[in-house]
Specification:
This protein is α/β, with parallel strands linked by helices and about 375 residues long. The protein is about 40% helix and about 15% strand. The chain binds nicotinamide-adenine-dinucleotide. The site of nicotinamide-adenine-dinucleotide (NAD) has 28 residues, from α4 and α5.
Length: about 375
């Protein structure tokens, strides 16, 4: 495997990242990037996304933005982790392979615990199980009984749902129409919670099978992908990829509240002001979608139960309420207030490396291949 450090200083998404690494493995076909944004609060934790990017620069930009978001997310969730993210560059229509994730596990292992991986878009619990054969620096693995962890998406959906519920109170969720963009792992679970609470659902996805399931199980109305953002609804829940809220989509938005799971929903910081000017409230994505990383982090650190997770994810709406109050007091968009708060939390521990891989975490894998000897 060929691994090199990338110099990303000229990329507009670069934000003093501690390190950005590119791995290429001819045998498995793996091409992957790991971006470590900050280890100030602990090892850089963040999921692994597998996506067909048009070019490598787009993948690097995504990794830079997502890893910074993870620093903010982990800080706001009060977790002893910094921020990092991995992206795997897939060819269009190319299915993931076992060899690819074995190689990715070896890549993760070369960072000696400075980065801890888990699932994100396009990656399954089963993929993470393969990664675990090559490195202990992975979470989001199947768990037995009441142990915390496993698939993070239901926990992500729970945090989003509770935050949405808190933001609309005293209006009951049952009185709402919610438009959900993307009914994959998190979107599906969010629809389930909303449906159980009596909400009316409108959904859209590039995969017809996903929308068909939401229609059948939750009575959701299906609209084409180019209509979901501007459909008549009380709440918009972006649960696909980032950048859905942008200069082009904002003028057409009908929903007064945006509360979804997708990372980096705002294409640019200017879009936060555009929303503010239109009187549309966006609940900061990395604050309300932290349920998954909380589950993954508690699994990695060990000793927590599902009941503990319910309690910890239940704290998210309180944080959202505080941010909204601060936003009102300062007349700043909630996302701006959240960014400042998160940055302060990260900077509060100057010089703490946190990169010590011994901060919790499972025992090393008993596997020669985990030594990353090919890297
Ligand atoms: P996923 O891949 O399971 O689901 C994403 C869905 O969006 C897929 O069904 C895909 O077909 C659909 N999609 C893609 N482009 C679309 C478009 N233009 N219009 C409509 N649908 C589109 O991923 P996921 O794990 O559910 O994650 C969804 C989002 O939430 C991502 O942005 C992810 O980073 C974020 N997130 C996920 C978690 C988690 O626990 N999985 C945690 C925090 C944040």
């Amino acid at each position: 495997m060929d691994i090199k450090q990338l110099d990303c200083r000229s990329n507009p998404a670069f934000d003093h990242h501690e390190g950005v690494y590119l791995a290429r493995d001819a045998r498995s076909g793996l091409e992957a990037i790991i971006a470590v944004h900050s280890t100030n609060l602990g090892p850089a934790a963040g999921g692994c996304r597998r996506w067909s990017y048009g070019d490598r620069e787009s993948a690097v930009t995504d990794a830079l933005r997502l890893s910074r978001g993870m620093s903010y997310k982990n800080a706001m969730a009060g977790l002893p982790f910094g921020g990092g993210k991995a992206v795997l560059l897939a060819q269009p229509g190319q299915a993931p392979t076992r060899q690819e994730f074995e190689a990715f596990g070896r890549f993760v292992h070369t960072l000696s615990g400075r980065y801890v991986t888990a699932e994100d878009v396009g990656v399954s619990t089963e993929n993470m199980r393969v990664v675990r054969e090559r490195t202990p620096y992975v979470s989001g693995l199947p768990q037995e009984g009441e142990a915390a962890g496993g698939d993070p998406s239901p926990w992500t959906a729970l945090g989003v749902f509770l935050s949405l519920q808190r933001a609309v109170a005293p209006i009951d969720v049952a009185e709402l129409t919610v438009a959900v963009q993307g009914v994959g792992h998190v979107g599906y679970h969010l629809c389930k919670l909303l449906h159980e609470a009596g909400a009316n659902l409108i959904v859209s996805d590039i995969h017809p099978a996903s929308t068909a399931r939401a229609a059948e199980e939750f009575g959701a109305r299906v609209v084409p992908v180019d209509q979901i953002l501007s459909v008549e609804a009380d709440v918009l829940a972006p649960c696909a990829l980032g950048g859905a809220i942008n200069e082009r989509s904002i003028p057409g938005l009908k929903a007064r509240l945006i509360a979804g799971a997708a990372n980096n929903q705002l294409a640019t910081e200017r879009d936060a002001l555009r929303l503010h000017e239109r009187g549309i409230l966006l609940l900061p994505d990395y604050v309300i979608n932290a349920g998954g990383i909380i589950a993954v982090a508690r699994e990695y650190l060990g000793g927590s139960t599902r009941q503990d997770l319910v309690r910890e994810v239940g704290l998210i709406p309180g944080r959202v309420a505080e941010l909204l109050e601060l936003s009102k007091q300062t007349s700043q968009p909630p996302s701006v207030v959240a960014d400042r708060t998160a940055q302060r939390l990260i900077d509060r521990v100057p010089g703490a490396t946190g990169a010590d891989a011994s901060v919790g975490g499972p025992a090393p894998v008993d596997n020669d291949a985990a030594a990353g000897h090919e890297a």
